[in-house]
């Protein structure tokens, strides 16, 4: 099976500080892959490099057949293939939920307003927040704002969805609801890569876990195995902190 995402030997530095030191990972169709690691391990930087928000010095990233080399080329094509949900949602405060979703399709891709609105309403309904389409971000709960942000990321119908710490601001009940939502998305063939510090959520909903330490992948596999009997010291330290 051909991966939707392939990351090979990616290196990234900020000044003299090396953030990523040859990262290799892949995400296949229908997978939900959780990227875990201690603070500073490079998790969010990996997502940002895949989304074209960080330039990298060496290596290769391929998203649904589009090859990135660390430059700013092909970003327009990339944003049709990958969507990103940021940790704090980053919705425009002065726009309603549906306006937030329609913004990029209309102004970046030239989608007619009526078509963009139809697509936005369908996504909001699919994610269980269709009744909140006219709400401003400040009027949404944390879970609702997150679902609107997911709808916005899916507006261009990308095959790959990136999420940065999606469980961080959710209570246990909302985390379960999010997990079911993400499972529905992968069931329809989308691929998800998310950073997460919640090992219970990863055990329950992830297809595979990838552990980063010092800018490298040090362990990966079935979450039930990796997070129960970790083979690498970095994974053991991560779980010790949770305990």
Describe this structure in words.
The chain has 243 residues and is of the alpha/beta class. Helices cover 35% and strands 25% of the residues. It contains nine helices and ten strands. It has a six-stranded mixed β-sheet. It has a four-stranded antiparallel β-sheet with strand order 2-1-4-5, covered by helices on one side. A hairpin with a 2-residue loop joins strand 1 (5-14) and strand 2 (17-27). The model has no long low-confidence stretch (mean pLDDT 92).
Which word captures the global form?
A: globular
Q: Main sheet: which strands, in order across?
A: 6-7-8-3-9-10
> Averaged pLDDT, please?
92
Order of helices and strands: EEEHEEHEHHHEHEHEEHH
Radius of gyration based on Cα positions: 18 Å
The major beta sheet can be summarized as: 6 strands, mixed
- Classification by helices and strands: alpha/beta
End-to-end Cα distance, whole Å, is: 37 Å
Poorly predicted parts:
none
**Would you count the extended β strands for me?**
10
Quaternary state of this entry equals single chain
Number of helices: 9
Strand content: 25-35%
Helix content: 25-40%
Q: What would the keywords be for this entry?
A:
243 residues, six-stranded mixed β-sheet, four-stranded antiparallel β-sheet, 9 helices
């Amino acid at each position: 099976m051909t991966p939707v995402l392939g990351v090979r030997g990616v290196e990234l530095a900020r000044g003299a500080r090396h953030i990523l030191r040859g990262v290799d990972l892949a995400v296949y169709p229908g997978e939900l892959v959780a990227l875990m690691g201690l603070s500073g391990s490079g998790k969010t930087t990996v997502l940002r490099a895949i989304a074209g928000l960080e330039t990298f010095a060496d290596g290769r990233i391929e998203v649904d057949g589009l090859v990135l080399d660390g430059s700013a080329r092909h970003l327009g094509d990339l944003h049709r293939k990958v969507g990103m949900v940021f940790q704090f949602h980053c919705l425009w405060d002065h726009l309603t939920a549906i306006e937030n979703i329609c913004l990029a399709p209309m102004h970046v891709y030239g989608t007619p307003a009526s078509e963009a609105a139809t697509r936005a309403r369908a996504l909001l309904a699919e994610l269980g927040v269709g009744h909140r389409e006219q709400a401003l971000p400040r009027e949404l709960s944390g879970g609702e704002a997150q679902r609107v942000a997911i709808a916005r990321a899916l507006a261009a119908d990308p095959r790959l969805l990136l999420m940065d710490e999606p469980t961080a601001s959710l209570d246990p009940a909302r985390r379960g609801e999010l997990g079911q939502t993400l499972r529905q998305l992968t069931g329809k063939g989308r691929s998800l890569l998310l950073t997460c510090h919640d090992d219970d959520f990863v055990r329950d909903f992830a297809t595979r876990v990838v552990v980063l330490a010092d800018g490298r992948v040090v362990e990966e596999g079935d979450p039930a195995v990796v997070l129960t009997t970790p083979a690498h010291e970095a994974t053991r330290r991560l779980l010790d902190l949770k305990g």
